[in-house]
Design goal:
532 residues, alpha/beta, 5-stranded antiparallel beta sheet, 5-stranded mixed beta sheet, 49% helix
């Protein structure tokens, strides 16, 4: 691009031909009536033209009344910093560069303002550069508003952190209570089982022996028949008492551990209910805490009862395994009638939903999680994930949970955070980093960077800012999903606008969340779309 050299040569706008007088007047009227600040300089830094808005703003911030032909350097001689900055950026334009910058100008005593400036090259009819022009917009109020929003956002984040800390403390208290409740429940079960075995069963056995002696002393056949029937009833009562004691407190669970108890439970259901129950239990899957083992055993027992009584299942599979060093995973799957887990008005299969909800709630309080996969006619698959160490007592010296305890997942969901605004990006990153079931895999500030990092980092979930300069969130989402269909994208926006939501969903996003939503809603959305 040809550029002009700075000299003392007088330049100016070419005179309009007579045929262009009307067009020239319209252009001058348009420039003069514009609310933006418009001015042009020749190659000697002299004013060729400026509108009234530019002249008034220049006078307000610098105290100088400019005039046509005046040297810009002379006009700013009393403001050395502004003079240097103005010469620097005007020189780029006079060298033939077209660009946009944002700078602050003004006499400090009058107050400095922030301006967005768009520079263009000025040429004559032959294409020779004769100067440069710029259009200026005062963005001070906008930047001040942004700073206020940033401060308010930081204050809100700090308030959110305090509320999260309070919520975590309350959740910790609930977890302790849940652990204590499970421990008390097991003690009571053991006491009842002991009472059944040591008292009721012994008394029934003694009654049977006494009744037998009476029967042997009788000669009357009808009385002997009555005694035999009474003995049969006592035998049934002893069997029922024994089975109840075993169900309440199975000795194998406390003698040999959870995996052995699950194998025994499968065999017991095969015998009692005639079901095809397959059990695959790894020996290293047993949690260390007796309370966790007992709760998992009760949960599997409840799921088997539901499948046997209500699901019309013919086959049930139980798979227990260790996930890394920190988690026990138990899967109970049946081929029964199934149901819709999302339907609020789904049939209560003889109370199965209430039991399943209780399992989910109790397991979460103990530091684990339960997932339910089912559909009408497609059976049911329940996955129980529980910490292998004590959810409350396994802590470091500072009282914090160690890795792999309450609230974490194994493996954690890897999240790529894409947010144009640095303050909000840092705030969201700090929220994600506090959660042990989520891993902040990386951050990006633009659509182009998001596409590159998604390919490099292969995240499970992408939190995608919808509105960004350059490549926007919808286009970035389209490219990421095209190359990595398994990656889940969540749209993030300040606006609850259906048009933006539809655009993101059409591009391949699976969810849309506003940035002012509670942090826990956003985290739960990440977990939901990530399958945690």
């Amino acid at each position: 691009m040809e550029s002009c050299k700075v000299s003392d040569r007088r330049g100016g706008l070419p005179a309009a031909d007579s045929n262009d007088d009307r067009t020239g007047r319209l252009l001058r009227s348009l420039i003069e009536g514009s609310h933006d600040l418009i001015a042009a300089l020749d190659c000697g830094f002299r004013f060729l033209v400026f509108n009234s808005a530019y002249r008034d703003e220049f006078r307000k911030v610098s105290g100088v009344e400019i005039r046509m032909g005046m040297d810009l350097r002379e006009a700013l001689a009393h403001l050395p910093e502004d003079r240097r900055s103005a010469v620097e950026i005007w020189q780029r334009a006079l060298n033939g560069e077209e660009f946009t910058v944002e700078r602050s100008f003004g006499d400090p005593s009058r107050g400095r303002n922030i301006y967005q400036i768009n520079f263009s090259v000025l040429r004559d009819e032959s294409g020779r550069q004769i100067g440069a022009s710029h259009i200026v917009r005062n963005v001070t109020r906008w930047r001040d508003a942004e700073q206020r929003l940033d401060r308010q956002h930081e204050e809100l984040l700090e308030q959110l952190r305090r509320e999260q800390a309070l919520l975590e403390a309350k959740n910790e208290q609930l977890r302790r209570l849940a652990t204590q409740l499970t421990s008390v429940e097991q003690r009571e079960r053991r006491c009842i089982a002991h009472a059944l075995h040591e008292n009721l069963q012994q008394l029934l056995a003694a009654a049977k022996m006494a009744l037998g002696r009476v029967g042997r002393s009788l000669d009357d056949e009808p009385l002997q028949t009555a005694v035999r029937r009474s003995n049969e009833l006592i035998d049934s009562a002893i069997d029922a008492s024994r089975n109840l004691a075993i169900d309440l407190f199975p000795p194998i669970l406390y003698d040999l551990g959870l995996s052995a108890a699950l194998e025994w439970l499968g065999q017991r259901f095969r015998e009692l209910h005639g079901l095809d129950v397959a059990v695959e239990a790894a020996r290293d899957a047993d949690p260390a805490g007796q309370e966790i083992q007992a709760f998992l055993f009760r949960s599997v027992q409840e799921l088997l009862l539901n499948a046997a009584k209500h699901a019309q299942a013919g086959r049930i599979e139980i798979i227990a395994s260790a996930t890394g060093d920190d988690w026990t995973r138990i899967v109970v799957a049946d081929d029964g009638v199934g149901f819709n887990p999302q339907a609020a008005d789904r049939p209560r299969r003889g109370g199965v939903d209430m039991n399943l909800a209780t399992i989910q709630q109790r397991l979460e309080l103990l530091g684990g999680r339960a997932q339910v996969q089912s559909a009408p006619g497609e059976g049911c698959r329940v996955t129980l994930l529980a910490p292998r160490r004590d959810a409350v007592l396994d802590r470091d010296a500072g009282g914090r949970r160690k890795s792999g305890c309450v609230g974490a997942q194994q493996p954690p969901l890897r999240v790529l955070l894409v947010e144009h605004h640095p303050v909000l990006r840092n705030g969201l990153a700090s929220v994600l980093q506090e959660k042990t079931d989520l891993e902040l895999a990386g951050q990006a500030s633009s659509g182009e960077e998001a596409v590159a990092k998604a390919a490099q980092l292969e995240p499970d979930v992408v939190l995608m800012d919808v509105t960004m300069p350059g490549m926007d969130g919808a286009e970035a989402t389209r490219r990421i999903v095209c190359h990595r269909p398994k990656t889940r994208v969540i749209g993030l926006s300040m606006h609850e606008y259906d048009g933006l939501r539809r655009r993101m969903l059409d591009a391949g996003a699976v969810a849309y969340v506003t940035k002012d939503s509670p942090a826990e809603d956003l985290l739960n959305t990440v977990r939901r779309v990530g399958g945690k």
